[in-house]
């Protein structure tokens, strides 16, 4: 039976973006599958008393260099967006609406690129509609769908589930009872998949 | 010319312990040398407004599992000590006194093992003397030496230097103008050494 790695992500998190560029490969080369799970980092922070890592000035300065170093290491594009942070509630609900149409990963990847590589404000409905069109989805329909209560509830449920499992930040991973936090834990995840 | 990686460590930090088990190998296999630099994590926290990562309960719970996962990944012994945290001022000064006798690394490694693998309270002078004897040093002499102002100053200077470079936690690394924080950045350091 193939192992399933739950990958909880928020489009607002640069480290979740970095992990999103690797997680499928890490799984594929170990006979596992990544299940992308949209959640809300703001909700996780609120539930756990955690906060943005950039609170400490020296840490914020380091983070900029660290993100560049990881993107060079992975060979993926990265540029810290001028428009930061974003309110990711709408974009994350849109991910769930795309999931219903079998295009969660495609949309999430396109949104990550649009924001973390190209600097487009993905909390703007016009940008969302454009990115959706790029992956063959009807942006107007998606934006209408996210006003429905069941989509709102689903995002809340994913977030609560992650918090129950032990999440306090993003990206967050769950694999067969083990939890991992951070892009930098992918080597540990790979090691666990191999065992 | 061989590259030199500055490795700032505090014996009180479990992630610095984990890094200490790998840093020499990472350097050796890339034709570089690690220069072990004792510093005081408490001083770094004070200077930068940072604090122990265990402030958030979910993070503290995760840290226990994370430390176990890294020790299994590296294949090194680890057990969270009952006596935690320690005041590392004396142990770190002792490292500097050992450095004068050409035994900094030997003593630091023995102290790390004594605390993070065997649970011995290495802020206790009797334990310090025992560990020192194990690596062929005179514990009484070391403990006398750390009362001298120049040793006290040297620890303060190392700490201030790290803070100037951008440190806000441990372990902290400096390589030719680039800085890295955390045991989990060793893959990035290795990548940088290869470039």
Structure report:
2 copies of one chain form a homodimer. Helices cover 55% and strands 11% of the residues of chain A. The first copy, chain A, contains 10 helices and 4 strands; from the N terminus they run E-H-H-E-H-H-H-H-H-H-H-E-E-H. The first copy, chain A, has 195 residues and is α+β, with helices and mostly antiparallel strands. The first copy, chain A, is globular and about 45 Å long. A 4-stranded mixed beta sheet of chain A has the order 2-1-3-4, sandwiched between helices. In chain A, helix 6 crosses helix 7 and helix 7 packs across helix 8. In chain A, a hairpin with a 2-residue loop joins strand 3 and strand 4.
Give the oligomeric state. homodimer
Instruction: Give the strand order of the largest sheet of chain A, numbering strands 1, 2, ... along the chain.
Output: 2-1-3-4
Average of the residue pLDDT scores of chain A:
96
Strand content of chain A: 5-15%
Number of helices of chain A: 10
Please identify the structural class of chain A as seen in this structure. Answer: alpha+beta
The low-confidence runs of chain A, each spanning 5 or more residues with pLDDT under 50, are none
């Amino acid at each position: 039976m193939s192992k399933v790695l739950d990958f909880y992500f928020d489009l607002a998190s640069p480290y979740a973006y970095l992990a999103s560029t690797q997680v499928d490969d890490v799984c594929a080369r170990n006979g596992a599958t990544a299940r992308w799970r949209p959640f809300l980092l703001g909700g996780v922070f609120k539930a756990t008393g955690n906060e943005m890592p950039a609170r400490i000035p020296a840490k914020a300065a380091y983070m900029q260099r660290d993100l560049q170093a990881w993107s060079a290491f992975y060979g993926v594009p990265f540029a810290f967006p001028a428009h930061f942070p974003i309110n990711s509630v709408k974009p994350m609900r849109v991910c769930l609406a795309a999931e219903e149409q079998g295009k969660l990963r495609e949309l999430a990847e396109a949104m990550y690129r649009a924001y973390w590589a190209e600097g487009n404000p993905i909390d703007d409905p016009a940008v969302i509609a454009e990115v959706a069109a790029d992956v063959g989805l009807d942006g107007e329909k998606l934006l209408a769908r996210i006003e429905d209560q069941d989509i709102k509830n689903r995002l809340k449920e994913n977030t609560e589930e992650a918090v129950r499992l032990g999440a306090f930040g993003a990206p967050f991973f769950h694999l067969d009872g083990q939890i991992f936090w951070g892009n930098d834990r992918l080597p540990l995840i790979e090691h666990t998949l191999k065992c």
